[in-house]
Specification:
Largest sheet: 2 strands, antiparallel
Number of helices: 2
Helix content: 40-55%
Oligomer: single chain
Shape: flat
């Protein structure tokens, strides 16, 4: 995975989090949308591969 692609992915995650924050009145930690995101999302770790966010 190139650094440029990694930056693009991380930028996408940031935009998702910003969207959730804006739409959920900054109380996103308790919202169903946020809970679904953190239980179903995965992130790519260079030495491990795809890892669920919950286990990181």
């Amino acid at each position: 995975m190139s650094d440029e692609f990694r930056v693009t992915i991380l930028y996408g995650y940031r935009k998702i989090l910003d969207f959730i924050t804006d739409k959920e009145n900054k109380n996103f930690l308790k919202t169903p949308l946020w809970q679904q995101f953190i239980t179903g999302a995965k992130i790519f770790c260079k030495n491990v591969g795809w890892v669920e966010i919950k286990s990181t």
